[in-house]
Amino acid sequence: MAPPPLASREAVREERFSDVWSNELNDAFADIARYYDRANEIAALGLWSTFLKRFMQTVDIKPQQKVLDVCAGTNAIGIALLKREPTLDVHAMDRSAEMQTVGQQNATALGFQIKSTIGDVHTLPFPDNHFDVVTLQFASRHLRVREVFTEILRVLKPGGHFHHSDMLRPRNPIVKNLYYAYLKTCLNFTSLIVGSSPAATKFKQYFIDALDLFYTAEELSIVLRELGFVEVTVDTVFHGMIGFHRAVKPATP
Q1: Rounded CA separation 34/45 (Å)
Q2: How far, in whole angstroms, is CA 85 from its chain's centroid?
Q3: Beta partners for 165?
Q4: pLDDT above 70 covers what percent of the chain?
Q5: 156 to 86, 91, 253: CA distances (angstroms)
Q6: Structure pTM?
Q7: What GO molecular function terms would the record report (predicted)?
Q8: What is the C-alpha separation between 55 and 61, in angstroms, rounded?
Q9: Using one digit for the tens of pLDDT, what is the confidence trace for 134-167?
């Protein structure tokens, strides 16, 4: 089934998933936190670290910059950034205290400091024009995209860079159907291997449904431009299954 038109996509996603996003998803991620990184590596057939490396290659950073990682999870992005440039001032925000607890443990074990904020990323508790770089990886399918991207645009400094990566809805219907079949299989296998709790296991169908109502790489580029970002570019892998977007806040209003 074709997704709704781009203009009404967010309203349809909100109607379909609002209750899950608001009331249920946090419990699932609270359980997933303890094995999140391992589960991703299993589900991605060992390619998870490769996806992270590919994403990091798109991120522009300079010494002393202030960086915000939105939906930071276990701080994989913040840690990778600090390994590359230890002088960065890295902030992490996530709604899951459990995920950030694991993330803080991961950062501390490597001698890195990442400033953590727990809260709803749809309303970022930071001033306007505050960050040089904002990153967001593998979370937008669970968010009100236009709200979060608007907040990211607000907190970026003029000329600041937004780097985004996520699983996307392939444009080719054959690729899409093969992709969904693979995801259903690997989610079942991964949940069995890592011993997912019922709170996490019941969301397997949701993950497929959320992706089916998400955006293609081209559609997400349009959304970024409509919200006011410029210099929007995207690289994709696996025929559009995963996309790496880069966008810039205009230097002048």
Answers
A1: 19
A2: 21
A3: 137, 244
A4: 87
A5: 21, 13, 13
A6: 0.90
A7: methyltransferase activity
A8: 13
A9: 999 999 999 999 999 999 999 999 999 999 999 9
Between 54 and 87, name the one with better pLDDT: 87
Question: What's at 245, amino acid-wise?
Answer: H
CB 165 within 8 A of CB 243: yes
Pairing outcome for strands 242-248 and 156-167: antiparallel
CATH number of the domain at 6-248, out of 3.30.750.24, 3.40.50.150, 3.40.50.720, 3.60.20.30?
3.40.50.150
- pLDDT tens digits for range 175-230: 888 888 877 776 664 554 444 555 555 677 888 899 999 999 999 999 999 999 99
Strands 89-94 and 66-70: parallel
The residues that bridge with 149 in the sheet, in sequence order, are: none
Tell me the backbone φ, ψ of residue 163, rounded to 5 degrees.
-120, 125
DSSP state of 241: T
